[in-house]
TrEMBL record, chain A:
Residues annotated as domain SUF system FeS cluster assembly SufBD core: 166-390
Organism lineage string: Bacteria, Pseudomonadati, Pseudomonadota, Gammaproteobacteria, Alteromonadales
One GO BP: iron-sulfur cluster assembly
Originating species: Aliidiomarina soli
PANTHER family noted in UniProt: PROTEIN ABCI7, CHLOROPLASTIC
Family under the similarity heading: Belongs to the iron-sulfur cluster assembly SufBD family.
Domain SUF system FeS cluster assembly SufBD N-terminal: 17-158
Protein name: Fe-S cluster assembly protein SufD
Length: 421, 254
């Protein structure tokens, strides 16, 4: 047991709020957890050593945050800004469109309480240690409810900023009613040696449509552990894009659970890792019912001494006939010192399914490089174009143009700073 | 002199392919290099352009007064050398437009010209597209991605037109083309003959030379130029084939 975990359990004892009954169950589970080590399969390639020398301390600071840092040109969004777990936005001052309700987790309306009852800890019943930590400590967050039939044009963006040496925990709970449509952006950023857990749970009702983005753009010294979990109702549709930088320790779990038939989920994931960064993505696709479709594409570029871990699990239950599931993970290793661990996990218990899984790690295509050089393009520029083209394909698939235009140069700049070969 | 190659030797994977090649090309001249498979024709193009693994063992190549072998691949291109590939490379994720704009501007920068703006470049690219009979949609596609053999060759010629090189090496630009495509390629090349620009046309068959008339024809066999002449030499080769060179030249290699 780490000192940090002992401290978490201690602190959890003093969290008293309306979610305490559920938190109590999580705490009981947490108390029986082992601190993950090398032999814990889910953490095999991700060391928790950074917790031994944790600089971040719980509690807020009066850090000044320049909101312009989060401004995205051309994006007209409803922003909910958290700094070190404190909500800076006055929700009551927002003019919300009909059908959209937003509540702070610590000041829930009655409706928000009922949403939380359906969603909080319910979307992903089996949570790893840090999921449980978030269950017991995340007193900050939002509850978003989109009413049946409501079509919310304006994206809702939850900005979650953590500053240097601060530990914080944040939770997002979203329910989309029948035939509801919405866009939700989880925009996370951690400065300095921050430590943050951020989990989000989504419940999609019948024929609901969710466009989802998660940006995990943390600094090199940050620790960030989080996840986005989706429960897909009948005929619901999800289009999700996750973009992550690495950090000292970054771990994200994305779970898509097909609970209703004929649901469609598309999940794209991009990671760009430099220096000594570590990024670990565990994705779990559960097809519990027939006729579901999942398309998952993960692409990563790993340079310098960085390390990527990708674990892609597809679980097709015995009843889930006519499932279509495709998972593709492609990685580009720019440096001989970089490391990529990619692991497919297919568990198929139904016989009438189409399931494809591919994972590759490639180095620079020398022939393409020579071709570009032979046209006078400098080596550094050619490498940028060649390798960036690889993730550009996924950026272009993002439905929101303002986000594409914002992300493309941002990732390109980061990429250009990476040491190649 | 545009290009002066003296006693060039080059090996690939330890096997000597070029065995003492000499060639002088003046501005504005078109030289055809013919020869059987395995004679070292493609190797010559790669050695001149600087492909990895195709370094000269000995000999020199002066290009516009500079020692070509002292330059990196991209520096050779920036100095005005252009190789039209026999097998152009597909690069998904990088658009043809972006690729060509980068190369044009890299070369302009080297010459001390201002980079072309997106609209200036687009205008030129559209003209070049028309010239080689490729639909404009090809500018937006990934570089050579899913192009047919003929489309790839035309895309090479389009790049040549846009890059305005001093010396163009066409490596089997006729292979795999039907007569119509061959004419498009030849017209593209001929449009760039301005009395200053030089060409090395590497080909196995005489066919392309019906459309691109060379000033000189050289027969490359077993790593050396064994015979040189004017355009009539190509006609002779067409009649007699390469059998007169003897069995040695028929050895296959890289």
């Amino acid at each position: 047991m780490s000192q940090w975990l002992a401290d978490v359990i201690d602190r959890a004892g003093s969290v008293q709020d309306w979610l305490s009954p559920v938190r109590g169950e999580a705490l009981a589970t947490l108390q029986n957890q082992q601190w993950p080590g090398r032999r814990t399969e889910a953490w095999r390639y991700t060391s928790l050593h950074p917790f031994d020398a944790l600089l971040a301390q719980p509690g807020s600071t009066s850090a000044q945050v320049d909101s312009r840092e989060f401004a995205i040109e051309g994006l007209d969004s409803l922003d909910l800004v958290f700094v070190n777990g404190e909500l800076q936005t006055d929700i009551s001052s927002l003019s919300l469109p009909t059908g959209l309700s937003i509540s702070a987790l610590d000041e829930p309306t009655d409706n928000a309480r009922s949403v939380a009852g359906q969603v909080f800890t319910q979307v992903k019943p089996e949570r790893h240690l840090f999921g449980l930590v978030n269950d017991v400590l995340a007193t900050s967050g939002v509850i978003i409810d989109i009413a049946d039939g409501a079509s919310i044009e304006t994206p809702v963006r939850v900005i979650n900023l953590v500053t240097d040496k601060v530990e914080s925990h944040n939770r997002v709970l979203v329910r989309l009613g029948k035939q509801a449509t919405a866009t939700v952006i989880e925009h996370g950023s951690g400065d300095g040696a921050s430590m943050n857990t951020a989990f989000a749970e989504y419940q999609l009702g019948y024929e609901a449509r969710l466009e989802h983005y998660r940006f995990a753009l943390h600094s090199a010294d940050a620790i960030h552990i989080g996840g986005s979990h989706f429960q897909m109702g009948e005929k619901s549709r999800l289009n999700s894009t996750l973009v992550g930088y690495g950090s000292q320790l970054s771990r994200l779990d994305v779970d898509i659970h097909h609970a209703g038939e004929h649901a469609f989920a598309k999940f794209n994931n991009i990671y760009l890792l430099a220096e000594n960064e570590h990024f670990d993505l565990h994705s779990t696709i559960e097809h519990a019912v027939p006729n579901g479709t999942t398309e998952e594409n993960a692409r990563g570029i790993v340079g310098d001494n960085a390390k990527a871990v990708f674990n892609g699990r597809i679980h097709i239950h015995p009843d889930a006939q006519k499932t279509l599931a495709e998972l593709n993970n492609r990685n580009l290793l720019l440096s001989r010192r970089g490391q990529i661990n990619t692991k497919p996990e297919l568990e198929i218990y139904a016989d009438d399914v189409q399931c494809a899984h591919g994972a590759t790690v490639a180095e620079i295509d020398d022939e393409a490089l020579y071709y570009m050089l032979s046209r006078g393009i400098s080596r550094s520029q050619a490498l940028v174009m060649l390798n960036f083209g690889f993730v550009q394909e996924l950026i272009e698939q993002m439905p929101n143009k303002a986000l594409r235009d914002w992300l493309q140069p941002k990732l390109k700049t980061r990429f250009e700073g990476m040491e190649v070969k | 002199m545009m290009l002066s190659i003296k006693d060039l030797h080059a090996s690939i994977d330890g096997k000597e392919i070029l065995k003492g090649l000499n060639l002088d090309i003046k501005p504005g001249e078109v030289h055809a290099i013919m020869g059987p498979n395995g004679a070292g024709k493609s190797t010559l193009g790669y050695v001149l352009s600087g492909r990895d693994g195709y370094e000269a063992d000995s000999g020199t190549a002066q290009f516009n007064g500079a020692d070509l072998f002292d330059l990196e691949v991209e520096e050779r291109a920036q100095a005005g050398l252009f190789l039209a590939f026999q097998y152009p490379v597909e690069i998904p994720g990088v658009s043809n437009m972006e690729f060509m704009k980068e190369s044009v501007n890299a070369i302009r920068e080297k010459r001390g010209d201002d980079p072309l703006s997106a609209s200036e470049f687009l205008k030129k690219a559209k003209e070049a597209c028309k010239q080689v009979d490729l639909p404009l949609a090809f500018l937006k596609r990934g570089v050579n991605e899913g192009f047919s053999g003929g489309e790839k060759k035309r895309n090479e010629i389009m790049q040549m037109i846009l890059l305005e090189p001093n010396l163009c090496i066409l490596d089997e630009s006729d292979s795999g083309l039907d007569v119509d495509a061959l004419q498009v390629v030849a017209n593209g090349v001929n449009s760039q003959r301005d009395g200053k620009r030089s060409f090395i046309v590497v080909t196995h068959y005489q066919r392309l030379l019906d459309y691109i008339e060379p000033d000189y024809v050289h027969i490359l066999a077993d790593g050396k130029i064994v015979k040189s002449g004017d355009a009539s030499l190509a006609k002779e080769v067409e009649k007699t084939g390469y059998a007169w060179l003897g069995a040695k030249a028929e050895e296959a290699d890289a």
